[in-house]
Amino acid sequence: xxxxxxxxxxxxxxxxxxxxxxxxxxxxxxxxxxxxxxxxxxxxxxxxxxxxxxxxxxxxxxxxxxxxxxxxxxxxxxxxxxxxxxxxxxxxxxxxxxxxxxxxxxxxxxxxxxxxxxxxxxxxxxxxxxxxxxxxxxxxxxxxxxxxxxxxxxxxxxxxxxxxxxxxxxxxxxxxxxxxxxxxxxxxxxxxxxxxxxxxxxxxxxxxxxxxxxxxxxxxxxxxxxxxxxxxxxxxxxxxxxxxxxxxxxxxxxxxxxxxxxxxx
Length: 265
What we know:
Layout lengths: L12 H21 L12 H17 L4 H13 L10 H16 L4 H12 L3 E3 L5 E4 L9 H14 L8 H11 L14 H17 L5 H6 L4 H16 L6 H14 L5
Antiparallel strand pairs: 1-2
Helix pairs in contact: 1-3, 2-3, 2-6, 3-5, 3-6, 4-5, 5-6, 7-11, 8-10
């Protein structure tokens, strides 16, 4: 599990309360969805949560958020996937309620719980008319303040931060594994050419259309956008032409991509 992000001890009690909430959320995700849990998940586990938390901190710093708002971003990032195994939309709603309830209990005020609620709800992926994810709810929500909008945008960016990273193609395979019933995180799914090509098509639609909702995401997270898209196009072609014919081959090709560009981010 990723180490909880630490903030200076001299910060306010309110910042420390947010860090405690983030730590609780991160531990809850690990207990529910990591290997050894009753219903472990291949992707939506503490690895993804830790990645989103770290990305949120990076983006918040780059956007000039103060320490308190950075802690609020971190708490929302930690809680954004705390409810899984429910219908799409319901997961984000219940995760948002989990966080808002704890912020209320910490007596941070109704404005803060509202901001946190919208930040988590904003990570919900939305589908276009062709059934592909291309955008998140964050772009359609109405916000009571510019501050709340900025925090929600940064959390949404963080949730998609791995899209154009060297590890993005490799860890996207964990998302595919989650769609395969009965497959545990450490197991290999059956190599189904047709299903994998549909999955690759959906990934390409997202990669080619997605725009980070805050400009700091576009500046910091898209350096390998063209390389990742090119890689996924080649992978799709090689699956279709049976140049890749096993799950292990698919994993190895994505591992090679991750290693090739690891120093470029």
